[in-house]
Design a protein that fits this description.
- The chain is mainly alpha-helical and about 200 residues long.
- The chain is about 70% helix and about 0% strand.
- The protein contains 8 helices and no strands.
- The chain has helices spanning about 20-40, 45-50, 55-60, 65-90, 95-120, 125-150, 160-170, 180-195.
Length: about 200
């Protein structure tokens, strides 16, 4: 007599975060960015919870440690920057999309400089967080630059890596007053210098 094989019950599909949990997470990240920018490394997590309009317990369920919250704030800002690339590509001509993203990158760096004191308290410091995000940023930038090259808006011998290096060089002046205006002018100079000559 053959034994009946037990019918295997399929595992339930992975649950997506509930809408209210996702909303709470976004509120926490937005409030944390504001409070870390204002108060730096001494920012109070209770103040972040209060500004987000949630209880401290909810904050700690999402982010059990201060380090986890700081890392999530920075990662969220990098993801927004990276996601802007495809959005600009879908709505703007190639050269305008590239310029818009480069200007947004300047805003991103300006915002990052404001939370660096908090980022420096994380294990490994701000440099570890910044290094970890470079691939995502380079991919977004390279995609837009290649699109502008393919359209003929930039010379075919343009190397996107050269533009990235030039942008990084601009940000070495980010501790000087008024650096953002200089950086914006240099974006236009970089683009003009990469245009076809005929």
């Amino acid at each position: 007599m053959t034994k009946k094989r037990k019918k295997e019950i399929p595992s339930p599909p992975a649950r997506k975060p509930r809408a209210d949990a996702q909303r709470n997470r976004e509120l926490i990240l937005e409030a944390a960015k504001d409070v870390f920018t204002r108060d730096g490394a001494v920012a109070s997590l209770d103040e972040i919870a209060r500004q987000a309009g949630i209880g401290p317990g909810t904050l700690y369920r999402h982010f059990p440690t201060r380090d986890a919250l700081i890392e999530a704030v920075y990662r969220s800002e990098v993801e927004k920057l990276a996601e802007a690339g495809p959005r600009f590509a879908a709505t703007l001509p190639p050269l305008e999309a590239l310029r818009a993203w480069m200007l947004l990158f300047i805003d991103h760096v300006a915002g990052k400089m404001l939370i660096v004191p908090a980022m420096d308290t994380v294990a490994g410091g701000s440099s570890r967080l910044i290094m970890g995000s470079r691939g995502l940023i380079r991919t977004a930038f390279a995609s837009l630059a290649q699109r502008a090259i393919a359209s003929g808006d930039l010379r075919h011998d343009t190397d996107p890596n050269d533009l990235v290096r030039a942008l990084v060089g601009i940000f070495h002046t980010s501790y000087e007053p008024g650096w953002e205006q200089t950086a914006r002018r240099l974006v236009d100079i970089l683009i003009a210098g990469s245009r076809p000559t005929n």
